[in-house]
Design goal:
By secondary structure, this protein is of the alpha/beta class. The chain is built from 16 helices and eleven strands. The strands form four sheets. The chain has a four-stranded parallel sheet with strand order 1-4-5-6. Strands 7-8-9 form a three-stranded antiparallel sheet, covered by helices on one side. Strands 2-3 form a two-stranded parallel ribbon. Pfam families: CoA_transf_3.
Length: about 400
């Protein structure tokens, strides 16, 4: 059962793709008082694909009874929201587990259900900031900037909810007991970005973000777009920069003073190349690359990139084995033949349709084990099927509930 809002809907979509029968519960009005209505239509289409839709007015005694009966027959119950929001649903784990001891009860909340921050308000940006991730996404003393799409922070938690639920399923196969899986979106983002704590292993002592400095830019403008390119240094990654410098030299755009540097002999920096402590700059200067020289090289690289288009840069970088990638727009990703070959996009109306494309399966398996049941249809389109099979209602019972506005 999926009673999530847009923060947790991805969990049910992943379960459905893996073959589970996922029943999304919505209000009879199709939106408004139920959290799922937070999703915009295009988000709802993607996140609800492969699910079945039933309607239920949980504010009425008959609707509350239906929800309890659905939970009695479910393997998983997916919920998302702050503790107060979840409490308002009156679907507590202890009560439901008495009727269904094998139930795997999954909650996804901003900061977890316990702790001093449990009841704090949230947004995707708050989740990013509270995880510590934004602190690294800045240059010098400038303020941090937002990362990725507005729902990205929640999606990390939703996917971890699936992993936690499957672990609980494995335990249930052994012991027969269900569990409560308590997912914190903040904790999920901390875990997803834990590698930032490993930067000191390839650098000297990492400076606080407001004291960090930029060695070289990592985003460069081309004649028709932008690319991400890092001038890496040190014995582990300096050979990539040596190859790039040779490319500039062959094009006649490298100032002669930089032809003598072996980038493997320069101080090792983190793979991002974005920030490093002040002592690393001192070592760069001691190796012959002080601030004035770095500025001249940066200007030469800037002019070099402006002479080439993004596609030409990518083709040459691939041939020369350089760490360079175009910064794609969504339109670029959609048009990329690589993603078409792997079936990233699909039309819910069939491959020949000219209608909108949705994001497809998150992985490929051989043999193909993913399910494609189609879109959820209109709210309540699976009422008759689910209420007959899961709850045991007759056609007459279902029609009476529909006539009275319960479903």
């Amino acid at each position: 059962m999926d009673l999530t809002d847009v923060r947790g809907m991805l969990a049910g979509r992943v379960f459905a793709d893996l073959g589970a029968e996922v029943v999304a519960v919505e209000p009879p009005t199709g939106g408004g008082e139920w959290p799922v209505s937070w999703a915009r239509p295009e988000q709802w289409s993607v996140l609800s694909y492969n699910k079945k839709s039933v309607t239920c007015d949980a504010g009425r005694p008959e609707g509350r009874h239906l929800l309890d009966e659905l939970c009695r027959g479910a393997d998983f119950l997916l919920l998302s929201g702050a503790p107060a929001e979840l409490e308002a649903l009156d679907l507590g784990y202890e009560r439901l587990a008495k009727a269904n001891p094998g139930l795997i009860y999954v909650t996804m909340s901003p900061f977890g259900l316990t702790g001093p921050k449990a009841d704090y308000a949230d947004s995707d940006l708050i989740v990013w900031a509270a995880s510590g991730t934004l602190s690294r996404n800045r240059v010098g003393s400038r303020v941090p900037i937002r990362i990725s799409s507005p729902l990205h922070g929640y999606f990390h938690g939703a996917v971890e909810a699936v992993a936690g639920a499957l672990l609980a399923l494995a335990e249930r196969a052994r012991s027969g007991r269900g569990q409560h899986v308590d997912i914190s979106f903040q904790n999920s983002m901390v875990f997803a970005n834990m590698l930032q704590g490993l930067y000191p292993l390839v650098n000297d002592v990492a400076a606080p973000p407001d004291q960090a400095v930029t060695i070289f830019p990592t985003v460069w403008r081309t004649s028709d777009g932008y690319v991400q390119f890092t001038l890496t240094t040190g014995p582990a990654t300096g050979h990539f920069s040596n190859g790039f410098i040779r490319w500039m030299d062959e094009a006649g755009m490298l100032p002669e003073e930089f032809a003598v540097f072996d980038w493997r002999d320069l101080p090792q920096t983190s793979g991002s190349g974005l920030s490093s402590s002040g002592s690393t700059l001192e070592r760069f200067a001691a190796a012959g690359l002080d601030q004035a020289k770095r500025s001249r090289l940066e200007e030469a690289i800037r002019r070099f990139f402006l002479t080439l288009g993004t596609r030409d840069l990518l083709a040459s970088a691939h041939e020369r084995r350089l760490l360079l990638s175009p910064i794609f727009s969504v339109a670029d990703v959609y048009a990329n033949p690589h993603h078409a070959e792997r079936g990233l996009w699909f039309s819910p109306e069939g491959p020949a349709s000219d209608g909108p494309r949705l994001v497809g399966r998150f992985a490929r398996t051989v043999p193909d084990g993913f399910q494609d049941r189609g879109g959820p249809g209109e709210p309540g389109s699976a009422n008759a099927d689910i209420y007959r099979r899961w709850v045991g209602l007759s056609d007459g019972d279902i029609e009476a509930l529909r006539a009275n506005g319960v479903i």
